[in-house]
Amino acid sequence: MLIFLAVILVALDLLLVWFMLRGAPYVPTRKITVDKIVDLAGNIDGKKMIDIGSGDGRLVIAFAQKGAQATGIEILPPLVNLSRKKIQEAGLEDRAKVIWQDMWKTDFSPYDVLTVFGIVHVMPTLAKKIRREMKPGSKVISLSFKFPHWPIKEDRDGIYLYEV
């Protein structure tokens, strides 16, 4: 039994490392930061937004509350379930959803606003994917991590606004 538990723990550790290499670890965004991100997006009423690595769904919910059609992409199933529960509790099922999906397999073309709290090693590849898929004029907001070689339209305390 002890060997079985050890194997399970090692497998879970390897899975966690794999998820972290594919994106960023889960770090909850503070309410004041969520408010700054939503404000930086400007008029989002009726716009489609996507939050990559949406964690517990707090950005998705905040954008939906301001009138956006908000979608979160999350790769960790427990966070997807938590987000869905919070969306339901907020009564936002008609404007917000979180999908269990890999960001690298997600089509960004339908969205007007994209938010991400990435990590240094994914930003160059993610920048190429965003530029290839999102329409000109779309807004991209990154928390803490910059996209290399992209001109920053606005910087609010380490929250970077870009335009495709």
How would you describe this structure to a colleague?
The protein has 164 residues and is of the alpha/beta class. It has a single domain, classed as Vaccinia Virus protein VP39 (Rossmann fold), CATH 3.40.50.150. It has a seven-stranded mixed β-sheet, covered by helices on one side. Helix 2 crosses helix 3. The chain is globular, with a radius of gyration of 16 Å. About 6% of the residues have low confidence.
Structure keywords:
single chain; Rossmann fold; 7 strands; alpha/beta; 20% strand; seven-stranded mixed β-sheet; 164 residues
Please specify the SSE layout and strand pairing.
Layout: H1 2-22, H2 31-41, E1 48-52, H3 58-65, E2 69-74, H4 77-90, E3 96-100, E4 113-116, H5 123-133, E5 139-143, E6 154-156, E7 159-163
Parallel strand pairs: 1-2, 1-4, 2-3, 4-5
Antiparallel strand pairs: 5-7, 6-7
Helix pairs in contact: 2-3
